[in-house]
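Let us work through a complete example step by step.
Step 1: write down the sequence.
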Amino acid sequence: MSNSQELKNIMSKNIKKNLKKMGKTQTDLAKDLNLPEMTVSNWVNAKTYPRVDKIQMMADYFGLQYRSDLTEDKPDNVFPMRSELVKVPILGNIACGEPIYVAENFAGYRYEATDMLPSGNTYYLEAKGNSMEPTIPNGSLVLIREQSEVENGEIAAVLVNGDTEATLKRVKKQNGVVFLMPDNPAHEPIVVSPKNPARIIGKAMRFTVDL
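Step 2: predict the structure and record it as tokens.
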């Protein structure tokens, strides 16, 4: 077996393992990351090897700290030492005119293992309504990494209505115009304009639902 094929096999095995952990399918992975299903299928079936930026995208999606968790053949029977827990704030209602990251804007906290969090500042945002279903269910908590820009097609936390409301939408950029797209076709896109401004405050990394 060529070294190249071996790398594809390792990538395939690690993608399948992480999808199983998350209870996701390769179709979910393709849709959540806005990737062609055939591209993801080829990775899962060890036919092709993803580019570095796509490996990083998947590592973020799976909540992996290192890209090597996808690119290397690591034994499954090695259990890491208990990692440190940190408080991740949950963003609640936003007070008009206040900076977003003030204590009054946070509705509580969730404790997360540091090695399960992406790099950078993180917080949770509750998905309200069904505009992002079926990708993100109503009521789920979405982990957001603070950043002011996202790639075309990625899901972002966006401030709208005069910076008083945080919403989750897929950001599409076309001919210099920014659209905030719902995944649910029953909802209308939001066109960003000087009269209807919006500000990206973070990238959606993953969501969790408490039963």
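Step 3: interpret the result. The chain has five helices and nine strands.
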